[in-house]
């Protein structure tokens, strides 16, 4: 799948966000190893702690459907339905990615004007907890 297509799916997911408190809508599109794509959006809560990020929504939907192998994720966000800056995944989302993904998992951060950055999970979470590192 082309990066631009994955980013467009993330932008589509961004439109479904529930963000009445921050006003920042975030969308994610997760590419599974089998080629399927799962979308997610952030869902806020007045109590903040129960708020869930777009990345985790996409991953949890995929896991619920039996997927466990992922290639990449595209993430975008902003106010007013527009991509306004880069939205890297939070620490909790990075650790959830690490539960299912290896160091080479690709994270595309979409920015305004059609530009994007490419990162790996190892780059974003250098000293992660993982089953293979901590179950020895």
Work out the strand percent: 15-25%
**H/E element order:** HEEHEHEEHH
Estimated helix fraction: 25-40%
Structural class by secondary-structure content: alpha+beta
- Mean pLDDT level: 95
Q: What would you call the shape?
A: globular
Number of strands: 5
- Number of discrete helical segments: 5
- Rounded to the nearest angstrom, the distance between the terminal CA atoms is 36 Å
User: What are the low-pLDDT stretches, counting only 5+ consecutive residues below 50?
Assistant: none
Mind describing the biggest β-sheet? 5 strands, mixed
Gyration radius, to the nearest Å? 14 Å
**Spatial order of strands in the largest sheet:** 2-1-3-4-5
Describe this structure in words.
The protein has 136 residues and is of the alpha+beta class. It has helices spanning 3-14, 54-64, 91-100, 121-124, 131-134, and strands at residues 25-32, 37-41, 70-78, 106-110, 116-120. A 5-stranded mixed sheet has the order 2-1-3-4-5. Strand 1 (25-32) and strand 2 (37-41) form a beta hairpin. The longest helix has 12 residues, at 3-14. The mean pLDDT is 95.
Compact description:
The protein contains 5 helices and 5 strands.
Produce the secondary structure layout.
Blueprint: H1 3-14, E1 25-32, E2 37-41, H2 54-64, E3 70-78, H3 91-100, E4 106-110, E5 116-120, H4 121-124, H5 131-134
List its salient traits.
136 residues, 5 strands, alpha+beta
């Amino acid at each position: 799948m082309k990066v631009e297509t994955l980013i467009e799916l993330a932008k589509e997911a961004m439109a479904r966000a529930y963000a009445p408190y921050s006003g920042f809508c975030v969308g994610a599109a997760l590419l599974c190893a089998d080629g399927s794509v799962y979308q997610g959006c952030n869902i806020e809560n007045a109590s903040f702690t129960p708020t869930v990020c777009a990345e985790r929504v996409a991953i949890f939907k995929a896991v619920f459907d039996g997927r466990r192998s992922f290639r990449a994720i595209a993430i975008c966000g902003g106010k007013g339905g527009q991509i306004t800056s880069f939205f890297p995944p939070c620490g909790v989302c990075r650790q959830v990615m690490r539960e299912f993904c290896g160091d080479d998992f690709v994270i595309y951060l979409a920015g305004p004007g059609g530009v994007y950055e490419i990162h790996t999970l190892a780059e974003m979470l250098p000293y992660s907890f993982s089953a293979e590192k901590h179950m020895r």
